[in-house]
């Protein structure tokens, strides 16, 4: 099997300034000394690629052993009814949407599309937005917030045959400690399900090695003859994954609360995006 390892962060930064073009507007921030990301490891883990290939090859075993949580079953029923009522419209998936601010902004920016925000925490989902709230706290009619386990929902979407046109993972928990790396999405057994959803993919993080690992994982699966053909082809359709560094005019333009927090504290904001990804939108809505 062909293994594609993540490049060194130092090599990447020195290689070409074109890798870090502004996503919204210059200038790019310099991470503050003692910031959160500065405490994380400085290099991507070299096993990101091999681990992803291993999970691709063992996908069927993972599916056999993975339970389907009842609340995700219920959520998928609600989702199916919503999609059927809305008709055939492009679907944007906001995985790990937190309080749903990004889901709301995406729905307002793309009124002809359906925007699905999913988070496993019902408390987070109900903290800012809700069906009975009005004004800036109202959920647009083309958006739906669901409590569900992401990996299970990805699986159910794939089983239903429903295509996701654009998929966003905005500032997922990076689990930076070495013993936690198996919880990062690109080290997780559900990575093949994520790749198989179809459409474009965008991942954002304040920790650059997370995105380098993610890209190395997708590249490794796409290049490995050991991976099942449908998984390998799904990974290949996500390439090339372009890496940029974002700059915001102001913290209020951040699409999520984490993006606003990181910008305010001087953290770097990084974006990994496949061909056809949505143009970045402001959270100031």
How would you describe the overall organization of this protein?
Helix 9 packs across helix 10. Strands 3-2-1-4-5-7-6 form a 7-stranded mixed sheet, sandwiched between helices. The chain has 285 residues and is α/β, with parallel strands linked by helices. The chain is globular.
Largest sheet: 7 strands, mixed
> Helix count, per DSSP?
11
Report low-confidence residues grouped into runs of 5 or more.
1-30
Shape by Cα distribution: globular
Oligomer kind = single chain
Q: Could you tell me the mean pLDDT? A: 83
Q: What Rg do the Cα atoms give?
A: 18 Å
Strand order of the largest sheet: 3-2-1-4-5-7-6
Helicity, as a percent range: 25-40%
Structural class: alpha/beta
Q: What is the end-to-end distance?
A: 47 Å
Order of helices and strands: HHHHEHEHEHEHEHHEHE
> What proportion of the residues form beta strands (DSSP E)?
5-15%
- Total strands: the figure is 7
Secondary structure elements and pairings:
Elements: H1 9-15, H2 48-57, H3 59-65, H4 70-86, E1 91-95, H5 101-109, E2 114-119, H6 122-128, E3 143-147, H7 150-160, E4 166-170, H8 191-195, E5 200-205, H9 208-223, H10 229-236, E6 242-246, H11 257-264, E7 269-273
Helix pairs in contact: 2-9, 9-10
List keywords for this structure.
285 residues; alpha/beta; 13% strand; disordered N terminus
Could you provide a short overview of the structure?
This protein has 285 residues and is of the alpha/beta class. It contains 11 helices and 7 strands.
């Amino acid at each position: 099997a062909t293994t594609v390892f993540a490049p060194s962060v130092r090599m990447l930064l020195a290689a070409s300034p074109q890798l870090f073009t502004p996503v919204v507007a210059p200038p790019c921030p310099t991470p503050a000394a003692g910031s959160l990301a500065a405490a994380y490891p400085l290099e991507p883990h070299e096993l990101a690629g091999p681990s992803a290939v291993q999970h691709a090859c063992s996908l069927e075993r993972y599916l056999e052993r993975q339970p389907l949580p009842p609340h995700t079953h219920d959520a998928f029923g609600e989702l199916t009814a919503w999609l059927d009522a809305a008709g055939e419209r492009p679907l944007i998936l906001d995985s790990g949407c937190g309080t749903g601010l990004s889901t709301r902004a995406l729905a307002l920016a793309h009124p002809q599309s359906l925007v699905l925000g999913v988070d496993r925490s019902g408390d987070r989902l109900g903290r800012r937005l809700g069906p009975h709230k009005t004004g800036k706290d109202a959920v647009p009619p083309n958006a739906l917030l669901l409590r569900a386990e992401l990996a299970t929902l990805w699986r159910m979407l794939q089983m239903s045959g429903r295509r996701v046109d654009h998929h966003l993972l905005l500032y997922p928990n990076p689990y930076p400690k070495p013993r936690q790396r198996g919880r990062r999405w690109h080290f997780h057994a559900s990575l093949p399900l994520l790749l198989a959803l179809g459409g474009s993919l965008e991942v954002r993080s304040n920790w650059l090695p997370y995105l380098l690992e993610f890209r190395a994982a997708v590249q490794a699966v796409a290049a490995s003859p050991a991976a099942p053909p449908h998984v390998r082809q799904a990974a290949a359709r996500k390439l090339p994954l372009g890496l940029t560094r974002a700059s915001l005019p102001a913290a209020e333009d951040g699409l999520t609360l984490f993006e606003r927090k990181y910008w305010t504290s001087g953290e770097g904001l990084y974006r990994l995006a496949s061909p056809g990804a949505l143009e970045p939108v402001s959270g100031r809505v």
